[in-house]
Amino acid sequence: MEKKSLSRQTADRLYNIIVAEKRMAPGEQLPNELGLARELGISRTTLREAVRALTERGVLEIRRGKGTFVSERVEHLENFGFDKLGGMRGRLRDLFELRAVFEPSAARLACRRATPEELAEILDWGGRVEACILAGEDRTRADREFHAAIVRATHNEFMARLLPMINQAVGQAIRTGEGQEKLARDTLRDHALLLEFFRRRDEEGAEHAMAIHMRHSIDALELEE
Question: What is the number of domains present in the chain?
Answer without folding.
Answer: 2
